[in-house]
Each structure stands twice: as structure tokens, then as C-alpha cells.
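so my prof wants the structure for this chain in the C-alpha cells format not the other one, which i didnt know existed until like an hour ago. anyway here's the sequence
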Amino acid sequence: MNLSHMPTDYIFVRAQTNSDWDSCTFAIITISPEWRKEQADRIHFFKALEGCDSFHEAQFFNVEIQFFDADYELSEIVKGFDRKLDWCFLQVTQEEIDHLHTPQSTLGTCCICIDAFGNGQYKAWAKHSGEEFFTDQFSITEILKGYENN
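here's what i got, hopefully its the right format
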């Protein structure tokens, strides 16, 4: 698993939870061609609302994300993630993802929240406790540009 400056099928983004007993430090979002088209269509739709002071964001059900807690092996990657970045492309295999530590909570509903400026944030809620897991905000527009340039 390595952070990348070139587009890949995944992005790494910091995440956290409001849980008092569970933990979450990052998320991996699958950036499939379908995901890219869906988000581009949504951003295009929201451009009409860009000047509307009363529009905050819209939420859509989405399951293209997994939340994780950093274990010892990943601590260097998490530390190496530049704090100035909102996200970074990630070179990772499904086998590597399968070996990562997930939060103890079973996550249920998961949404992507998109604002009129092309920014996104994922939110998920634990099935039994209702505790929230969420990513830092990231620029969907910048992610999509990365694929246009390659």
C-alpha cells in the first residue's frame, strides 16, 4: 500500500468518529468509472445552486467507502499523509484492504454529502449505537480532474 500522485482506483482520506469507545483514522474510497460519472453529474447539477445562500449540501446513499483504524503496520503511511492534503490516490490491492483493521462497530447507512462547490464528505452510522463515522471534506472536483489529465 502506497500513497500515489497518479490516479488509481482508490483514494485515501482521513476519517474519525464521535464514538467514545471505537476508533477510526482513515477511509478508503473506491473510485470506479461509475463513481466518477455519478459524482460529475451531481456536481454539474449543483452548479445551478452555487450562489444560493440557503443550499448547504445534499446527501446520497453510497457504499463505495470503507472506514479503518490504523494498526501498527499502517502508522507510517498515515503519518506520511501530508496534513495539507484533503485526500490522496492510493495504490492498494484488495488483499491489502482485507487485512486492514476496521472499527468495532458494524456500520449501516452510508452517505456521501456533496456541496455546491464540488466538495464531498462521507458519513456512516453504526447500526446499533448510531455513532457517526465521517471523513474529512475532500474535493470531488480535484479528484475528477486527476482522471481527465491522464
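also thought this was worth mentioning. Residues 22 and 104 are 6 Å apart (CA to CA).
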